[in-house]
Design brief:
With about 200 residues, this protein is α+β, with helices and mostly antiparallel strands. The chain has helices spanning about 5-35, 35-65, 70-100, 105-115, 135-140, 140-145, 180-190, 190-200, and strands at about 115-125, 145-155, 155-160, 170-175. The protein is built from eight helices and four strands.
């Protein structure tokens, strides 16, 4: 592997560590707010992924031919990797509260009871008009009132950005008002499109 290739791989892996740890925190907070064991379990799965990724990242940095004057810079990279893993561990601890079935504090119980929001997941069908569109183009929130928290594509989790393109088979995890849950399901399955066709 050339120097340029190793640098690019280090950058890509650090970006993945950052994105995954942030995604885990989003899912962990959602799991405890909505008492969702499903989301909590996904956080635990991602935590295992983070452990492996962090080990790979450290090994890659350490096996890179480092000149003495570069040592401090590479030490900084390793420390950044450690920070992302600590964030991931914290997210796993938050999710662990849900998985252990611990009784939430009274204040949290009241907040959950009063909340009008929910967390749901939908699979995107091949015929959905979401396919091939970015989240910004698809205007999921504008159409359904739901915010996409995460996208699962095969075994890979993606922390969505406005330019994230939706593909057939994607699993979307979203939160929002309960009334929008059915709208999101129809949008992902193309039922809404069929409904409009029947009305014409």
């Amino acid at each position: 592997m050339s120097i340029e290739e190793s640098f690019k791989k280090i950058i890509d892996m650090l970006a993945e560590l950052k994105d995954t740890s942030e995604l885990m925190m989003d899912l962990a907070y959602s799991s405890i707010l909505f008492n969702s064991k499903e989301l909590a379990q996904e956080v635990q799965i991602l935590e295992e992924r983070m452990d492996n990724l962090h080990t790979e990242f450290e090994l890659l940095v350490l096996t890179r031919c480092i000149k003495p004057e570069e040592s401090k810079n590479f030490l900084g990279l390793i420390r950044l990797g450690v920070v992302t893993e600590k964030i991931a561990d914290a997210a796993a601890q938050i999710a662990g509260v849900v998985l252990r079935g611990l009784e939430p504090h009274q204040v949290l119980k009241l907040a959950i009871k009063e909340a009008e929001e929910t967390v749901t997941h939908v699979h995107v069908s091949k015929k959905s008009r979401l396919v091939g569109k970015s989240l910004q183009e698809a205007q999921v929130h504008e159409e359904t009132g739901m915010w996409v928290l995460a996208v699962k594509r095969g075994d890979k989790w993606i922390r969505p950005k406005p330019d994230t393109v939706i593909e057939a088979g994607d699993l979307l995890i979203a939160s929002g008002y309960t009334e929008g849950e059915e709208d999101l399901r129809k949008l992902a399955s193309n039922e809404r499109h069929k409904y409009h066709e029947n009305k014409l």
